[in-house]
Amino acid sequence: MKSSVYQLPESKEIFIQAAKAVKYWLENIQQMQKQGIGLYIYSNTKGSGKTRLVCSMANEMIEKHQKSVKFTTSLKILDEIKSTWGERGKNAENKLISDLTYADILIIDDFGAESGKDWINEKFYGIINGRYVDKKTTIFTSNYPISRLKYDDRITNRILERSLEIPFPEESVREHIADAMKQELIKKIQGGENGKQA
User: Fold this and answer.
1) Among residues 20, 64, 72, 178, which is most buried (max CB within 10 A)?
2) Residue 54 class from Cβ within 10 Å (0-12 exposed, 13-18 middle, 19+ buried)?
3) Where do the DSSP E strands lie in 14-135?
C-alpha cells in the first residue's frame, strides 16, 4: 500500500509516519520478538487500510522472515469460544485459548469491536496475559486508541507496555482503491476490444 491511495495531505503524512514505524519494526523483528514488542495500529475510520497493512505484514513475516503467524479477528475469537460452550466442553475452549496464547506472532484484527462484558474481559485477559508473561508478540488493529478500549486496566496496561501504538489516517481508502481497480479494468477491456477490431 502506498501513500498515494489517500486523497488528503494529512492522511498521506500520517501514513508515511506509520509506514516508517512498521518498516523499523519489521527490520528489527528478531529483537522485537525477543522483547515481546508488538504493534497497535488504530484509526477511528473504517476502511483506512489497517487490515490491508497487517495482511501485507503477515505475508512478509511468513515469506521473508519464516515466522509462524496466526491471523484472526476479536469477534471470531469470541464466536469460537462461544461455540465450545455446551457439548464440546471446557477442553475445547482451553485448547482454543492455548493456541491463541502460544502462537509465535498473533494478529488480532478489529480489537475492541465487541462489547465490554465481564466474560469477554476474562477471556481476553487470559490470552493477553499469557502472551505478556511469555513475551509473545501481538499485533492489533483497532478503531480506538488503547486509552479508549472498554477493557479493564489489566488488559490495556499490558497492551500499552508491549506495543508500539501507531495512529493511522482518518480516511477510508476502500472507495479510492475500488475506483482505481475499476478504471484499470475498463482500460484492459477497452484495450482488448480495440485489439480485436484491429
Assistant:
1) 72
2) buried
3) 38-42, 69-73, 105-111
